Structure to design on (746 residues):
């Protein structure tokens, strides 16, 4: 059975949404009406930056999908088929991926109709997003796992109910491995006994392992997370949930295009996932480093710089045009300094003087509130 | 403190090897001799397939590295610097990556000599391999973490000693997450209470999650591993260790170039890591599928095939030329069938009829010994 978490729906609620969706269509058919549903427009023109909340989200534009419409008829039918499959997955209390869903559709619809309803998974992906946006529901609520990535250690416990079992996992007792953050951190997952007082997100798994070995999370009572590169949906959602519990969120990344991108995706959400901005963005997040001003503070870093690539410089220039970035003077200064010096710094450089130097760097940055907003 | 595992050296032994290496050089200098050490030749001409063991390994050719040699002098000095740093890491009982090592070298050698000793990490990587091959030691024994990837669930416990703590982790109690396989599964890691009777390796994490949710590992008393794509060094080493405990190893991958490659890397080792073939290859491994003969057995799969890509076909042709593959008639038949039909199959297709179909597929394959060698 699914259990209700902090800010999410239960399996019963997801099921009800799907049933209401299906019944609406049946009613229209019985009333000889054109079956129709409405979803949020996800095109660029409806992606907005909500200045008050500090997140990227969708505006108010909606789009109709209708069956009696030569351009939409096939896709409409496909969307209904997806909804039916997801309803079945919830009933079975089993999970799969959009790839598994795709093959189920190929299997079952291939028997009823003469041609394969889905030839390419690329056809089904936007329809799943249509359904998520139409029902105001996440694919994870439809028992569809997204790619998982990310790892965590800290003073908190996770109650994980899966495969009919209920397991309490203590994230302070997982050795060098840490807890692998799942795709879905809402349904059937509860965070209990959260004793940690802050969250530190570290871009690279290698640095996470370094800090984990030093037990930094224990000494500072932090939750130490690595998204292991760009943050997956589950990790972004988890960071949001921890922020909802009142924990400050610090991010420690490379000082380059990729590191900035990972930070801003965590902070404001992203254009691709604008339709779920509210649930995965953490505008409270702070950027600890690596920053260009570190070069002034830590002299040794000057022999550790690398030449910024064309991608880094292009990205820095683009970022200066984003209203959610250029509203922060600190970021404008940082990016201009990159463009001027044409240099960048990796977070690994902070192991230069000694392996544990990086711990002190982080502690000092937090203590002195030396971060970018 | 490091603890001795199944087939590996202790930290004290690694340290001793480094010290012997250093003392040898000092002695030569004091004797006014040219400092020299010998390492295994790692070029293609010294990579051989050991038919008896069924692994790819290095032959007997060795190469000398000497200091008084204009072509080698800089690299010799760099190798000694790497050895000194690793000796320090072992003394500190701290780990880093080759990237962290690189920045330590830049930091400390930059102070003593006028120019940076390492400008690019590409310079230090082959030197680490030189040292591994010279000392018959793995980089993991030198406290250098390689990238980690891979996940595990099953009836076994792991005793993990790190950061001065000793933690027992029960791999049957980690919920949907599983145990994240570390870079180093020898030093400071012990596998205790291994009750499982076999190992199932599943290429894709998504399928691993599917099978984990069904508790297949519990029902069949298997250790369920996903390398999450190509297997990292740690995962390959772990599979070898489990095979050493007498557990049969079954591999379930996509039936395409990438799936075959992942399988053969696990089974025979790889050309790149030929210098450590003995410790990471598992020639006992069997390939459960997906195979072309599945198309005859499971009729529904015929509507789930994809066109093989140019890469798949080229790879199939190449594989037919490898002596470690073409000695198996079953693989010759499989690859010829791919070349003839120009089709391929993903492991995800086995979720077509129902999500749990894949469990039955695996159980039946094992029960009927339907595998490729």
């Amino acid at each position: 059975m699914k259990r209700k978490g902090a800010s999410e729906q239960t399996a019963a609620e997801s099921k009800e949404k799907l049933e209401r969706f299906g019944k609406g269509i049946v009613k229209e058919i019985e009333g000889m009406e054109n079956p129709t549903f409405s979803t949020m427009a996800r095109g660029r023109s409806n992606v907005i930056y909500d200045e008050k909340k500090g997140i990227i989200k969708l505006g108010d534009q909606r789009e109709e999908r209708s069956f009696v419409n030569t351009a939409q008829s096939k896709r409409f039918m496909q969307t209904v088929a997806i909804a039916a499959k997801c309803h079945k997955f919830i009933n079975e209390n089993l999970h799969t991926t959009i790839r598994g869903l795709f093959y189920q559709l190929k299997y079952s619809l291939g028997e009823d109709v003469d041609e394969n309803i889905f030839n390419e998974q690329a056809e089904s992906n936007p329809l799943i997003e249509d359904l998520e946006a139409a029902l105001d529901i996440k694919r994870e609520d439809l028992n569809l796992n997204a790619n998982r990535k990310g790892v965590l250690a800290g003073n908190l416990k996770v109650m994980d109910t899966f495969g009919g079992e209920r397991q309490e996992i203590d994230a302070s007792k997982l050795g060098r491995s840490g807890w692998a953050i799942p795709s879905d951190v809402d349904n059937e997952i509860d965070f209990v006994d959260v004793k940690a007082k802050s969250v530190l997100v570290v871009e690279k798994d290698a640095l996470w392992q370094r800090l984990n070995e030093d037990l930094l999370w224990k000494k500072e009572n932090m939750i130490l997370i690595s998204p292991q590169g760009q943050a997956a949906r589950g990790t972004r959602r988890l960071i949001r949930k921890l922020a909802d519990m009142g924990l400050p969120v610090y991010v420690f990344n490379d000082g380059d295009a990729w590191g900035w991108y990972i930070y801003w995706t965590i902070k404001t959400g992203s254009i691709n996932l604008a339709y779920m901005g509210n649930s995965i963005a953490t505008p409270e997040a702070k950027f600890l480093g690596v920053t260009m001003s570190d070069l002034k503070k830590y002299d040794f870093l000057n022999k550790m710089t690398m030449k910024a690539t064309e991608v880094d410089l292009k990205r820095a220039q683009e970022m200066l045009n984003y209203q959610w970035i250029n509203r922060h003077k600190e970021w404008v200064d940082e990016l201009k300094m990159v463009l001027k010096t044409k240099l960048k710094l990796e977070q690994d450089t902070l192991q230069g003087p000694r392996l544990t130097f990086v711990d002190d760097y982080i502690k000092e940055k937090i203590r002195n509130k030396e971060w970018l907003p």
In short: The two ends of chain A are 41 Å apart (CA to CA). The first helix of chain A runs from residue 11 to 30.
